Amino acid sequence: KKGNYEHYMQKEIHEQPESLRTTMRGRLICGDSSKAKSVLLGGLKDHLRTIRRSRRIVFIGCGTSYNAALAARPFLEELSGVPVTMELASDLLDRQGPIYREDTAVFVSQSGETADTLLALQYATENGALCVGITNTVGSAIARNTHCGVHINAGCEIGVASTKAYTSQIAVMAMMALAIGDDTTSSQARREAVIDGLFDLPNKVREALKLDNEMKDLAKLLMDEQSLLMFGRGYNYATALEGALKVKEVALMHSEGILAGEMKHGPLALVDETLPIIVIATHDTCFSKQQSVIQQLHARKGRLIVMCSKGAAQLVGPSGSCRVIEVPQVEDCLQPVINIVPLQLLAYHLTVLRGYNVDQPRNLAKSVTTQ
Ligand code: UD1
Ligand code: F6R
């Protein structure tokens, strides 16, 4: 079943061009001279009006699923015009945070069975919100108990560390934003550009997978480290959190994803010549801010590894001043799908080199069905 691969996680990382294609199959409408390009999400189409009229959209999930929602949030805010907030399911339950009838609550869960997410669904249902599911598992508790939703159709994921489900979740939430924004003519050009980007995304992911050997070399360099930081912002704040989550859960190495805008408020104190720091600085509207973060880290002799857009290495520092990972550039809101790929590969190679169990990390279960 693993084919030519040694581990499921490795197989699932390399499968992402295909899993993304399946996720989008039948859901992207090409358009022609008489019809604009659009998306069709069968499970949402009868609920779009209610979602557009809701007072707030609140994403609820745990772990990687939460990170996927965080990656999609800026684009959903842009296209829906509705405030979008984020809740970790356990924290919402701990606080019994406010959920209203006028809310759309979106439950993101690969397995559809995570205890905290399910309890949060029960809580939001009792509070009268419209409950939307985004899950990879047809017939799961979340698929059954939400009012409507979208199956991500990424195919079965066996490795405990979520990889292909993450990228498919982001693709689905981008399509959800496109569907919600479909009634607004002022965003039509933007929507069409993103739809074109989605069509081409599997090819671009295939290109990013060619970084495999480079990531293996980087893993050799980092395998004995105690700790690894990842700085991101904007669309790629989620990439920093998710990259760090992958490294800690499978490679059993301390890793922390940090919002770059928070750097001066504490994390900067950690910077020295030894601690490796991955800075995500691909091209988008935050790029110049990331350039100045890189300069400040350089000034403190930080040990930087910078992820930048292909051909932009000279814009992130004088040549030879740091290691760079060049990734293919796509539409800004889809860039998190590309940027996570080298970090998944890095986490995978670190795990193998450090001699840990890739598919069944210590202490973890694929589906967390207890609180
Ligand atoms: C559906 C079919 C698909 C078929 C396609 C053709 C299923 C599972 N899917 O896909 O096989 O090829 O029509 O038009 O039969 N739902 C929830 N909560 C969730 C996820 C989904 O309530 O968390 C609901 C949706 O609102 C929808 C149904 O489940 O009513 C199926 O969702 P989805 O598979 O995403 O719909 P389609 O893409 O239309
Ligand atoms: C990490 C990972 C977990 C899950 C989390 C939620 O790789 O897989 O963080 O994302 O346990 O699981 P689901 O998405 O099934 O609700």
Summary, kept brief:
By secondary structure, this protein is an alpha/beta fold.
Structure description:
The protein is α/β, with parallel strands linked by helices and 371 residues long. The protein has helices spanning 8-14, 16-24, 48-53, 63-80, 89-95, 115-126, 141-145, 164-180, 188-209, 212-222, 237-251, 287-299, 335-354; strands at residues 28-29, 38-39, 56-61, 84-88, 103-109, 130-135, 148-151, 227-232, 254-259, 276-281, 303-309, 323-327. The strands form 3 sheets. The protein has a 5-stranded parallel β-sheet, with helices on both faces. Helix 5 (89-95) packs across helix 6 (115-126), helix 8 packs antiparallel against helix 13 and helix 9 (188-209) packs parallel to helix 13. The longest helix has 22 residues, at 188-209. It is globular and about 55 Å long. The site of uridine-diphosphate-N-acetylglucosamine (UD1) has 12 residues, from strand 6, helix 7 and strand 7.
Supply the key terms.
5-stranded parallel β-sheet; alpha/beta; binds fructose -6-phosphate; binds uridine-diphosphate-N-acetylglucosamine; 371 residues; single chain
The strand line-up of the biggest sheet is 4-3-5-6-7
The ordered string of helix (H) and strand (E) elements is HHEEHEHEHEHEHEHHHEHEEHEEH
Shape estimate: globular
Helix fraction, binned, reads 40-55%
What is the number of helices?
13
Chemical compounds bound to the protein: uridine-diphosphate-N-acetylglucosamine, fructose -6-phosphate
Unreliable segments of 5+ consecutive residues: none
The secondary structure category is: alpha/beta
The number of E-state strands comes to 12
Q: What's the mean pLDDT score?
A: 96
Quick one: biggest sheet? 5 strands, parallel
Sheet-strand content, in percent, reads: 15-25%
> Separation of termini?
32 Å
Query: Nearest-angstrom radius of gyration?
Result: 20 Å
